[in-house]
Each structure stands twice: as structure tokens, then as C-alpha cells.
Write a structure and sequence with these properties.
- The complex is a heterodimer of chains A (154) and B (383).
- Chain A is an alpha/beta fold.
- Chain A contains three helices and seven strands; from the N terminus they run H-E-E-H-E-E-E-E-H-E.
- Chain A has a single domain, classed as NADH:ubiquinone oxidoreductase Nqo5 subunit (Beta Polymerase, domain 2).
- Helix content of chain A is 21%, strand content 25%.
- By secondary structure, chain B is mainly α.
- Chain B is built from 17 helices and eight strands.
- Classes of the chains: A alpha/beta (154), B mainly alpha (383).
- Chains A and B meet through strand 3 and helix 3 of A and helix 10, strand 6, strand 7, strand 8 and helix 14 of B.
């Protein structure tokens, strides 16, 4: 795509259910949770700008909700987009896997599961990546580790 | 006596004794195996000497850098990023600095840009030196180690002269550099370029043209371009499969859009292609150094910065090319002096998990050649 305006128009056409906004750096797409996998497939399979390279996949904890976010690049046009969704359920966060679309997502999802406790539906091998099975989920903002972490008060 | 007892055995007993061929024979490679270059455990399922499946187990050196960043200011974060990929320490620092500078809209002085590029390329060469030494050693060519270490020492001496430290120099800071470089910095850099141009043919003689080395690496661990993209294999490993992923070209930062250099690409996708990419990259780095090192302008070594840096609310992403591939820094700020969330997309993460695809069906001896050619640094994966 020649410029961001054109890319945003294209993305709005491709994903009618999502909200596409121009962020500070890249176009940002916010999709509803149930359309997560469909979005991934559409972004990957379209002919014009196939987003085949997943740069980054991670999550952010906002205490009331989780944000799952990935950065995609098209290796043909070198366009970059950010795709986000929000998970309201903190007790049993569950989201569809995209590891069948991008192979690298399988391991990034394992990392997110390990550090945030977000489970991925249909994931082929959902085990913890770094930590022990009973460690808790350290990147959650309400995580407390009284043994290993010394908190400094200002 | 033994023969008698064997013949006496019923057929049923013999069947129970013989190990069935379809059973998996599991060998654990690591976490202390020398060829894994760090604490990585590869659970290898074997059939004879053929690898059937491979499961990497990581987390032995997980320090929770992303969690620690949430309690540190942006200047303190720099010192943590050194410890991820310790061989590309400078590029890791630069990634965070660029993210913060772009978020605040700060233009760093020209001098800083030049010095950063010089350090980028010196670090890249030093990192490739270590990889070259260790790769040769993995394959049984011990001499390579001494040649590589001899030349790497020259670069570390330049670092030591200017920053006091040789490996983790934390020399960048948001806005510029910690202090100015040593007056001899440019002179010694140019001396190194001249010196290393003479030494590169030795590298070619020792490994690149070595028939034994060819037999160990050519056609081993073939990775197609599609596989490289799907697994996010970047850096020289990805470019060995023809994946144009050099961030210096794709999304130029610093001075890279003004410098003439070419992106090294090979299409074969085997271990030897990945080897060649790194060898030619060293030469290309020397070309960049020649363009830059003599032209460093005079000026300030840092832009004016507030003592406490607070990023405006929002999300920031910065991509940087390290010696091993694409490093991404993702900062979510809530307007305070600590980042709300900091995420590092480490290049080695993708490079490690493609290993199963590459090693499957090959011999266990080739596994060492493949993992060596991917140039893994484990602390970068564990973070």
C-alpha cells in the first residue's frame, strides 16, 4: 500500500466488524474476542497485502481486563499493523489460538500462558514455557511473590 | 553356558528382552552441553542415530527482565537490556533509547548517530567473531576458536578504551551517550578495519574453503523461505533462506538510510548458506565502518534531557537489527516514570523453535551443525 490512508481503507473493507484507527506509528485494529481467529485468517490469506510475518505477540494486564496484541508485517509490501483484542474475564481468560495461521504463535502463546495465565483454545501443546507449574502468573499486575521479590517503597 | 541358557529360552521371553524398534530412545542434550551455548535442554527422540523429534526446554536462566522493567525508570532499563543478548549489548541498548527518543520526539545530535552506527557494526563483527569461533569448535575445528578470539580481542580493546567495560557497556542513554568517546576511538576503529581486511582471507582458508567443513554443513538443515517467515526466523539465519528481513533496510533507524550497504541474501537455506551470510555481513560491516568512522562530526554527545523521563500515555514500538535478527521493544506507558509494560521481541526466540523442523529426519551429529549455524544465545530467549 502506498500510504497509511489507503491501508486503513483496505483494512476497514477487509474487516467490517473491527475498528481500524491510525495509531501513533502503525494502523491499529481492535477486534471483538469472538472474531479473533477469523481476523487472523483474513489478514493472512488476503491477496493484496498478505500479512505473513508475525513480528510480535504479547499481552498486557490492565487489572480489569487483558489486552492481547500482535504486530504483523507483510513481507511483500512491508506494511505493518497492530491487532488487539480485550479479554474481560480475569478468572478464566480464554481465547482462540492463531498458531495454525502463524507457526511462531504456538510458542508466543505458550509464553503468554506462562506469564499471564491466558489459555488458548485449540492450542496443540499448551504447557508452561519458562516457569514451574505452580508458580503463579508473574506479569499480572496483582501478582505477589513474598519470598523472592523485595518491593521498595518510595 | 550362556549359549545354552539362550537356546533354552522360549520365544516369548526373547521377544520381551529385545528392545522394540518403534520405541522412542530419548536423549537429553544439555542443559550443560557445550554446543548449546548456554543453558538449553534439547529433548531428542532418536531412532538409531536419526532424530525423530526434538523438544526444546528453556527457562533455566529466566530472570523476569520484563517484570523488572516495570519497576525501573527508562534509564535503568538500559542496564537490564544488556543482559538479554550479551553479544549484541549495544543494539539492545539502542533499541530502548530509540523507542524513548521517538516517543518524546527528541532529535539526537549527529555525532551520536555516527558513533551509534560505528558501535553497532563493531558489535556485530565481534558477535560474528564469537559465533565463527564457536561454530568451528562445534564441528571439531578447534583452530578457528583461536583465530576468532584473536581478532575479537581488538574490538573489545576499543570498547574498553572508551567505555571501561568490554562486553556489557550500557553506553547508550535516552538522548545520546553516557559520555564522549575516547579521542583515539576513530583512529583505532580505522586501524581495526585495515587489520581485519587482511585477516578475513585467513577465515576463508580455514573454514570457508575447507572440504570437511563443506561436508558437515552443505545441504544440512534446509529451511525454506516460507518456514523462515512462519517461524519468524530473522537475522542472518533468515537471510540464509532468502527472507529479506534486515531491519536496517526494511525500517531504517539512526543513520542507516544515508549509508550505502547491501542486504546479504542467500537462497539455499542450509547451514552453509547461513554461514556465508554472516561471513559476508562481516565484510559489509567493514564497508559501513569505512564510510562512517572518518566522518564523525564534532558536537555534543547527548541531547538535553530531563532528569526524570516520563513518556506520554500510549504504546510505542521500536525495531532494531541486532547481530542475531530483529529485536522489538514494545513499551506501554501510562504517563508515569516507570513503563506500564515493557516487552522485548527477542530474535533468538523464533530462531530456536524452528530447530525441530530443521533437525527432524537428520542425524544427531548434524543437530550440532544446525544449532551452531542458527547462532543461539539462550539468555535472550529466556529474558
Amino acid at each position: 500500500m502506498k500510504n497509511n490512508v489507503e491501508l486503513n481503507a483496505f483494512l476497514t473493507d477487509l474487516l467490517p466488524f473491527a475498528s481500524v484507527e491510525q495509531g501513533k506509528q502503525y494502523p491499529e485494529i481492535v477486534v471483538p474476542l469472538e472474531k479473533w481467529h477469523e481476523t487472523a485468517q483474513k489478514l493472512y490469506e488476503n491477496q493484496q497485502v498478505p500479512f505473513d510475518y508475525m513480528i510480535d505477540f504479547t499481552a498486557v494486564d490492565y487489572l480489569t481486563k487483558f489486552m492481547v496484541v500482535y504486530h504483523l508485517e507483510s513481507t511483500q509490501t512491508h506494511d505493518l499493523v497492530v491487532v488487539k483484542t480485550y479479554l474481560e474475564d480475569r478468572q478464566k481468560p480464554l481465547i482462540e489460538t492463531v498458531s495454525d495461521v502463524w507457526a511462531t504463535a504456538e510458542f508466543n502463546e505458550r509464553e503468554v500462558f506462562d506469564l499471564f495465565g491466558i489459555r488458548f483454545h485449540n492450542h496443540p501443546d499448551l504447557r508452561r514455557l519458562f516457569l514451574e507449574d505452580d508458580y503463579g502468573f508473574p506479569l499480572r499486575k496483582d501478582f505477589k511473590d513474598e519470598i523472592n521479590v523485595i518491593e521498595l517503597s518510595n | 553356558m550362556l549359549l545354552n541358557s539362550l537356546t533354552d529360552m522360549s520365544e516369548e521371553t526373547i521377544n520381551n528382552v529385545i528392545i522394540k524398534e518403534d520405541d522412542d530412545y530419548v536423549v537429553n542434550m544439555g542443559p550443560q552441553h557445550p554446543s548449546t551455548h548456554g543453558v538449553l535442554r534439547l529433548e531428542v527422540f532418536l531412532n538409531g542415530e536419526t532424530v525423530k523429534k526434538l523438544v526444546p526446554h528453556i527457562g533455566y536462566i529466566h530472570r523476569g527482565i520484563e517484570k523488572m522493567c516495570e519497576a525501573d525508570t527508562y534509564k535503568q532499563v538500559i542496564h537490564l537490556t544488556d543482559r538479554m543478548d550479551y553479544l549484541s549489548a549495544h543494539m539492545n541498548n539502542e533499541a530502548v533509547c530509540l523507542a524513548v527518543e521517538n516517543a518524546l520526539g527528541i532529535e539526537v545530535p549527529e555525532r551520536v548517530k555516527y558513533i551509534r552506527v560505528i558501535l553497532d557494526e563493531l558489535t556485530r563483527i565481534a558477535s560474528h567473531h564469537l559465533w565463527w569461533s564457536a561454530f568451528g569448535m562445534d564441528l571439531g575445528a578447534l583452530t578457528a576458536f583461536f583465530y576468532g578470539m584473536r581478532d575479537r580481542e581488538k574490538i573489545l580493546a576499543i570498547f574498553e578504551e572508551s567505555f571501561g567495560s568490554r562486553l556489557l557497556h550500557s553506553f547508550n542513554t535516552p538522548g545520546g551517550l553516557m559520555h564522549d568517546v575516547h579521542p583515539n576511538f576513530q583512529k583505532h576503529t580505522m586501524e581495526f578495519v585495515k587489520y581485519f581486511r587482511k585477516k578475513l582471507p585467513e577465515y576463508k582458508q580455514l573454514l570457508t574453503d575447507n572440504v570437511i567443513f563443506h561436508n558437515r554443513t552443505k545441504g544440512i538443515g534446509k529451511m525454506s523461505r516460507e518456514t523462515a517467515i512462519a517461524y519468524g526466523v530473522t537475522g542472518p539465519s533468515g537471510r540464509g533462506s532468502g527472507f529479506e528481513c534486515d531491519v536496517r533496510k526494511v525500517a531504517p533507524y539512526g543513520l542507516y538510510d544515508q549509508i550505502k550497504f547491501k542486504e546479504i541474501l542467500h537462497d539455499e537455506g542450509d547451514s552453509f548458506a547461513r554461514y556465508l551470510v554472516r561471513m559476508e555481513e562481516m565484510e559489509e560491516s567493514l564497508n559501513i565502518l569505512e564510510q562512517v568512522a572518518d566522518n564523525v562530526p564534532e558536537g555534543d554527545f547527548t541531547a538535553k534531557m530531563k532528569p526524570i523521563i516520563k513518556l506520554p500515555e500510549g504504546e510505542y514500538y521500536q525495531r532494531v537489527e541486532t547481530a542475531r535478527g530483529e529485536l522489538g521493544v514494545y513499551i506501554v506507558s501510562d504517563g508515569k516514570k516507570f513503563p506500564y509494560r515493557m516487552r522485548f521481541r527477542s530474535p533468538n526466540f523464533g530462531n530456536l523453535f524452528v530447530l525441530n523442523t530443521l533437525a527432524k529426519g537428520g542425524l544427531i551429529a548434524d543437530l550440532v551443525a544446525i544449532s551452531g549455524s542458527l547462532d543461539l544465545v539462550i539468555p535472550d530467549i529466556d529474558r
